[in-house]
Amino acid sequence: MPLPEFELLRPKTLDEALEMLSAAPEAMPVAGGTNLIPDMRKGTYTPRTVVDVSRLPELCCIRRVEGHLLIGGAVRIAELIEDPMVAEDAPVLLEMARSFANVLIRNRATVGGNLVNSAPCCDSAPAFLVLDAEVELISLVGTRRLPLSEFLVGAFETVRQPQELLTSIRAPIPSDRSSSAFEKMGLRRISCMAKVDVAVLVESDDNGVCEVARIALGAASPVALRAKEAEKALVGRPLRPEAIGEAAERAASAVVPRTGSEYKRQVVHALTRRLLTAAAERGARR
User: Sign of torsion, CA 234 195 70 94?
Assistant: First the structure.
């Protein structure tokens, strides 16, 4: 289907972009357009105004700020694969990005766009959730930051207001003692939406006792989520098969798959066990 008619605005500064969004409440910001443009063709969204924020410097950076890794909302998924800070500070993002769609999509899709779309199969959400990330939203009224877990509220639903722009995602840089892993189960190796996403991050003390555990699950519920009860099964215990098995069972119980997709609980159980085992082995080698 052809695109509906719309006005394309290209602000040169962040302030100018915020003014445009404030002046036209129905306006939609766009950077990569891998979600918005297909939705416009289908008629899901028919904004009269589209604001191109892809060239704003504040949204295109990856940098370290006061012990945090800051990733601009317009950073493309492919850039996560190439950036040395991501590889060093957040390898779980690197693993996620490598499994994201295909090369063409990775070179267009942006981190902020993927999160704002909030599709149940949003690959980046579980990876950012185990990093305990927060998002920064800016409008002419001011700036607010909130945990990603509070930003994502449902399938294709976030708390972003029409006049707000997601400018960055911030995540505390994990300890050197932490280990993480991400895996996506789809119908094919590439170019497929996730059937299940699982991300884990664990940190143990010198005696091998788990001090930090984060498990995030995507595409198995209406929105990506942290499996808090599964995490509790690990903290204070050595990362051994018994604790890992209990955590995997609790993770499988945390998801809410659609009718007919109950098999996803078994997939969550298997992937959680596999990734926690791998992360524990990596941590033991350090």
Answer: positive
